């Protein structure tokens, strides 16, 4: 290996950080939309809502059996068609890679969060439902104020671990040529020919972020276990 | 919808053949990767539970490194960076490997060692879930520390683990698609190639997606069968009948 050149990395640090910013925004958006949608899906399955429950179940099973890259390609191709059909246009409406990434990650992660929340829902003791019914809470209030808060508290460590995986998975937007942390590094690496330096640097950045985050989750898990 | 698959492709075959070749590479990646992941993962996971400091610490560092770097970045490290870091003649040999193998070898190593870190965590969880009496009883019987692990702890932990290993097997076969970024022509790469050649994106993607679904179903069915087949006689979670002993017949008594 020719000598490791740090100056390249230092010069391009702002660009890499901009990429990292995109990765983090994508993670945050996919996390919030995914949790919201995942909770709805989980409730549909849990309450055995006719038709919709079955659709939710099929959706989750389907998404969880195909690779994320394949899902990204599907949405990159399908969303324009769908929007074209929705707006009545005769031609597909191009949405661009950035929007594809946001929509895909939100919908994809929803399936994974749904599984976590569904298992959490099943673990809530029956007495909680009965107590809520005895207090004559309506079903909406029961879930909103009694059941879901307990589910979230119990599943927080698993949800956060899944979110760390989500953050790692955002690197796959590379296949849509987006400039996330990895995309930024690979563009710079190809221009400068310094692949070793750039890929090792971002591997280190990912390692530090994910290791730090997983240590925090581990502490949280220990804390919640004691109570 | 799938007439596309019987249409002739530019290389003389049909697009269906391209798909099959993609399937072969996906399966090869998944199977070879899993063999590495299972062997290394069980070793590292057991290592983390040994007494002493050095071996558990080394195993922990392995797990943290391989688990906390995205698979795609690891793929690039194996493909682009490793040949540069190796001694020149070995690096050049890696770079000059004949086309499919030059991409396949880094992809398999990457997938295998990445999944190994995840398997190791499951194995550790399984070993920690075993009642401590198992280890104590084995030691009390005078088994060598190595035999305690080999005959008592690991076989029990692995049985407990089959459900979580199922999700890792599902994970590795899905992760094979990441290998397309370093040029392995597996299923997803073939889907994209066929759709680019013919502009028939929908049938190409649909055919590949269905193939993935069938693979998922096979993995799931296989692992469920394994779970029942290997269930420990004492485990009540599965079929309570003892599996390893033939049923005792009345006249034998």
From TrEMBL, chain A:
Pfam families given in the database record = BPD_transp_1
UniProt family annotation: Belongs to the binding-protein-dependent transport system permease family. HisMQ subfamily.
Tell me the function of this protein.
Part of the ABC transporter complex GltIJKL involved in glutamate and aspartate uptake. Probably responsible for the translocation of the substrate across the membrane.
Q: List, alphabetically, the InterPro entries matched.
A: AA_ABC_transptr_permease_3TM, ArtM/GltK/GlnP/TcyL/YhdX-like, MetI-like, MetI-like_sf
| Single GO biological process annotation from the record | amino acid transport
UniProt keywords (A-Z) are:
Amino-acid transport, Cell membrane, Membrane, Transmembrane, Transmembrane helix, Transport
Respond yes or no to whether keyword Electron transport is given for this record. Answer: no
Question: Topology versus the membrane, per the UniProt entry?
Answer: Multi-pass membrane protein
What is the protein's name according to its record? Glutamate/aspartate import permease protein GltK
| GO MF term (any one) | transmembrane transporter activity
State whether keyword GTP-binding applies. Answer: no
Q: Where are the transmembrane segments?
A: 20-45, 66-87, 93-114, 158-178, 198-218
Give the subcellular location.
Answer: Cell inner membrane; Cell membrane
- Source species taxonomy: Bacteria, Pseudomonadati, Pseudomonadota, Alphaproteobacteria, Rhodospirillales
Summarize the subunit comment: The complex is composed of two ATP-binding proteins (GltL), two transmembrane proteins (GltJ and GltK) and a solute-binding protein (GltI).
């Amino acid at each position: 290996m020719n000598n490791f050149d740090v100056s390249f990395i230092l010069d391009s640090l702002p660009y890499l950080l901009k990429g990292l910013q995109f990765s983090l925004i994508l993670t945050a958006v996919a996390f919030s939309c995914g949790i919201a949608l995942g909770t709805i899906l989980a409730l549909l399955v849990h309450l055995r809502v006719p038709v919709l429950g079955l659709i939710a179940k099929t959706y989750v099973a389907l998404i969880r059996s195909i690779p994320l890259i394949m899902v990204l390609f599907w949405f990159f191709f399908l969303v324009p068609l769908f929007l074209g059909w929705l707006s009545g246009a005769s031609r597909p409406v191009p949405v661009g890679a950035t929007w594809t990434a946001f929509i895909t990650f939100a919908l994809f992660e929803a399936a994974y969060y749904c599984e976590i929340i569904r298992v959490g829902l099943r673990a809530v003791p029956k007495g909680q439902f009965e107590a809520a019914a005895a207090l004559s809470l309506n079903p909406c209030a029961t879930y909103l104020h009694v059941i879901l808060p307990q589910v979230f508290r119990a599943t927080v460590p698993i949800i956060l671990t899944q979110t760390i995986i989500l953050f790692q998975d955002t690197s796959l937007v590379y296949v849509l040529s987006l400039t996330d942390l990895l995309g930024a590094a690979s563009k710079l690496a190809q221009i400068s020919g310094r692949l070793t330096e750039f890929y090792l640097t971002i591997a280190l950045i990912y390692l530090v972020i994910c290791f730090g985050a997983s240590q925090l989750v581990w502490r949280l898990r220990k804390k919640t276990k004691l109570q | 919808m799938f007439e596309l698959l019987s249409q002739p492709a530019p290389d003389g075959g049909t697009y269906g053949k391209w798909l099959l070749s993609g399937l072969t590479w996906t399966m090869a990646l998944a199977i070879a990767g899993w063999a590495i992941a299972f062997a290394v993962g069980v070793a590292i996971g057991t290592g983390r539970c040994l007494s002493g400091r050095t071996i558990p610490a080394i195993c922990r560092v392995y797990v943290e490194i391989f688990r906390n770097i995205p698979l795609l970045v690891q793929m690039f490290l194996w493909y682009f960076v490793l040949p540069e870091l190796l001694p020149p003649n070995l690096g050049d040999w890696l770079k000059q490997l004949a086309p499919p193998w030059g991409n396949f070898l880094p992809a398999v190593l990457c997938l295998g060692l990445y999944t190994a870190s995840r398997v190791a965590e499951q194995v550790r969880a399984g070993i920690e879930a075993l009642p401590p009496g198992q280890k104590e009883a084995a030691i009390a019987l005078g088994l060598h520390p190595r035999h305690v692990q080999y005959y008592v702890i690991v076989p029990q932990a692995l049985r407990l683990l089959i459900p979580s290993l199922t999700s890792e097997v599902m994970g590795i076969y899905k992760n094979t698609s990441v290998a397309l970024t370093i040029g392995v022509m597996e299923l997803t790469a073939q889907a994209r190639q066929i759709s680019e050649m013919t502009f028939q994106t929908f049938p190409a993607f649909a055919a590949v997606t269905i193939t993935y679904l069938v693979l998922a179903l096979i993995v799931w069915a296989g692992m469920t069968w394994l779970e029942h087949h290997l269930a420990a006689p004492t485990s009540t979670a599965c079929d309570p009948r003892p599996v390893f002993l033939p049923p005792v017949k009345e006249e034998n008594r």
